[in-house]
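Title: Prediction job returns without error message
Component: structure pipeline
Severity: low
Priority: P3
Assignee: unassigned

Description:
Job completed but the reporter wants confirmation the result is attached to the right record. Sequence as submitted:
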Amino acid sequence: VAARFREQEARRQEPRMQIETERARLKQEVESLLREEQAVQAQDKARLEYDAGLITARKDLEHAEATLKKRAELDDRLQGARMRQAEAKAENPRLKSEMEELKARINQLSQVEEPKCPLCGRPLDTNERNQLIDQLNREGTDLGDRFRANQTYMNEVGQIVGQLEQEIAGLSQAENERLAQTQTISRLTSQLEAIQQNAEEW
């Protein structure tokens, strides 16, 4: 009986070992699947954070691009103001010279008793002389008005240029911000794609 019992016990031992081996393998597989499930859940949480970060980065990118557009508009205005300032600065010496010439001609016509036409040299009567003086005075007034307008503009444009330069300097970080947000969007998109791929493989 004892020999038979040992024989049966030996035959039962092999299936028990197989069952224990299989149980251990299944336990490891369950533990591995649970770890993978936790990893996927953690990735889901990370995906939500990345999605939120992506939305924020896109808004920040739009803001940076709007700022760059504004900076370009301000820069155009600045260049226009500087160009107009240079034109006014260059024009005023010429205007002053022309006004002085007109004044000298008016003085010459007023002081001479028998004036002559400055163009053809023929003698002018009093009426013609007064008409010529009036015409020269109108031209001088027009030149003086332009001269004063240029002076006023040059005085005001200094402040305008200063304000524009200050605004542009305040927006100088927009290019760096745009680059940073573009890189952030690229990084987050790559991470989201990796999470998606891991979820599909799981």
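Comment from assignee: result matches the submitted record. The radius of gyration is 46 Å.
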